[in-house]
Amino acid sequence: MIVPIIRTAMVSLRRDRAALALSFILPITFFSIFAVIFGGRRDTAPKITVIVVDEDRSHASQRLVQGLEREGSLVIRTRPGSNNKAVQPQEYTAATAEAAVKAGDAPVALIVPHGFGENPISFRGDQDRPAIQLLNDSSDMVAWQMVAGLLQKVAMTSMPSVMAEQGSEYLDQLVGGLTPEQRKRMEAGLEQLRQHESAGTSSSETATGNGPSNSGIIAVKTRAVVGENKNNPMVSFYAAAIGVMFLLFTASGAAGSLLDEADSGTLDRVLSSRVTMTALLAGKLAFNTLLAFSQLVLMFLWAWAVFKLDFFDHIPGFVVMGVCTAFAVGAFGMLLASICRTRAQLGALSTLVILIMSSVGGSMFPRFLMPEAMQKAGLLTINAWAIDGFTKVFWRDEPVSHLWPQVSVLLAIGFVLFAIARRIAQRWEYA
Amino acid sequence: MLSVPGGPIPSPLLPLQIEAVAKRFGQVTALDGITLELRSGECLGLLGPNGAGKSTLIRSIVGRVVPDAGRVAVFGSAANSAASRAALGWVPQELALYPRLTCRENLESFGRYHGLAGTGLQQAVAWCLDWSSLQDRAAELAKNLSGGMRRRLNMAAGIIHRPKLVLMDEPTVGVDPQSRNRIFEMIEKLHGEGTAIIYTTHYMEEAERLCDRIAIVDHGRIIALGTKEELVRDAFASRSQVLVRFADPADGVAAWVKQHGGRLVDSMAQFSVEHPTEIAGLLDDAAGAGLELVDVALRRPNLESVFLHLTGRELRD
């Protein structure tokens, strides 16, 4: 009796195309997305942008910067990017570099201070020598630790002459002075090493970051310039990221009432009254927007109450981002509902589209962990723009006026999706 | 909608004027040039089997179906115009309700969709609850109502704005006899107040009880129109029907029935006779042909007979 049951189940599954698609397409799609993000080829791995300000401009500091530039996993910027190639922007200063990290232009900045070259390396952990400042955005927990580790590695490989000089000084101090002959041979060796450095053959590239360390031979002071006063750094990110994903599910479910009403004949009856299709869809969009916004309010209030999110200090930004996100998400739900013929179709399509959008758009893991191509693809999703906007509000404490790119894109997405949904909904208007 | 060139100007006094309305869905002709007028305060029945085109005609009047040709005017206004929507009430065949809303909330919602508000809305809701005898179930969710109650609520939702013309598309489908009677009373009350009604059904008894005139619809055409008496008279004049059931209808019966000018429908032979005395001749012939009779009945023709006479099929085929 088992075989007939299997046969019946197989026939049923074959006829239910939505379930069939979910069973086979969804796992393959997700496997592919995760494989690209976490197990992809090396040349697609994300590079970390590091702003470098060399205030010292000594031989040692220049060697260090050159060494960092040779690191394949880093993109070193000494001046802001410009669209106008004729006019080169001014080099970063300590202040502008810090502002750039705060604005999210780069997750890390290194400030090599005046006097660094006089005593760049210490094997004794001297506290009074000038330390390199590592300014970081703590929302990216990976970047700064990787840069800190690479910095020590570059110091070891890019400045062998400096290390040797420092070593000979230690030796001189510890053994009570070298004989003239020993000193002469030491100087000859150091000269040879400098020539070798000048030939540019002393550095080897590090492909990936080693274990992060701040207690290396180069003194580094790490300071988070974004998020240093936050109670719980990642809560705002996840409140937005998870919130948007579930908003999408809720919106598509709520929009499905359109299909229920079409099925039951209620839609026909409503359209035979004074209500037009445009008014009906606009009403449902308004409801979906309100529902989604209420969900966001509840989510962030919960984050405030339980996870100490600074909610009440960011009300204006939250309202602006919340309304725009809810509007875009609501219109997305209307579009899905207008495309589908049945609730089952809507369930399958929304699961497929929303999970893909959420993984690519950064709702499941931060986009800065993704390869560059995937990060760009994320910009096609509502999730990415919403999360970026909420991050600006809650993480970077940016004013509402800075939200215009996210607001513009989300509103545009909302209007375009609604217009398409209205167009498709013509099929319900007349027979 | 296409207009009929040179057609008469629609009268604002007539609740409904339909002229040469045609509609095809792919290869299927749903409406094949229907022309019809509804008089003020009249209840007109559209009687026909499933798939005859009754619902398509109703949906054309409501504006939910756009005819390929012809014209529909409601009190002189084109179908789907604002004036037409205000004057029309539609009770669809489906239970087009919000199942998670109460009876009162359903009526309020549809009232608002028709532009009612405030006291006017509340008065309309109260009237509808009273009309449908649902006052004591006003706070009940629609999904929890019995089948008959849901049907009544479905009707009430269609007339919440007190239209002058009401279209009822088989409002008694799936309803038990007791609930059906209550629905008839509701319709009779509405009719008694002067509301013009189009009532579609494939139940002859309903059309006979409720309708002033009856249009028999088949294959998208009106094949007969008039009062019940007119329809019967036109089809049968003063003749009566003789119904004969045979013990073994398969054995040469069909040929014998045809030979005697009758029809064999579901093992029942039907003949029309001018005088009851003709029955004796029929029985003698049957006996002579060796056919064994089980049952013989004489009756006055009804709408069912008219439909069979006109189409050669039974109404509920």
What characteristics describe this protein?
heterodimer, A: 431 residues, alpha/beta, five-stranded mixed β-sheet, B: 317 residues, Rossmann fold, 2 domains, six-stranded mixed β-sheet, four-stranded antiparallel β-sheet, 11 helices, 14 strands, 35% helix, elongated, disordered N terminus
Brief overview:
The complex is a heterodimer of chains A (431) and B (317). Chain A is α/β, with parallel strands linked by helices.
Descriptive account of the structure:
The complex is a heterodimer of chains A (431) and B (317). By secondary structure, chain A is α/β, with parallel strands linked by helices. Chain A folds into two domains: 183 residues, no CATH class; 200 residues, no CATH class. In chain A, 61% of the residues lie in helices and 7% in strands. Chain A contains 17 helices and five strands. In chain A, strand 1, helix 3 and strand 2 form a beta-alpha-beta unit. In chain A, helix 6 packs antiparallel against helix 7. Chain A is elongated, with a radius of gyration of 29 Å. About 3% of the residues of chain A have low confidence. Chain B is of the alpha/beta class and 317 residues long. Chain B folds into two domains: 168 residues, P-loop containing nucleotide triphosphate hydrolases (Rossmann fold), CATH 3.40.50.300; 61 residues, no CATH class. Chain B has eleven helices and 14 strands. Chain B has a six-stranded mixed beta sheet with strand order 6-7-8-3-9-10, with helices on both faces. The longest helix of chain B has 16 residues. The N terminus of chain B is likely disordered. The chains are: A alpha/beta (431), B alpha/beta (317). At the A-B interface, helix 10 of A face helix 2 of B.
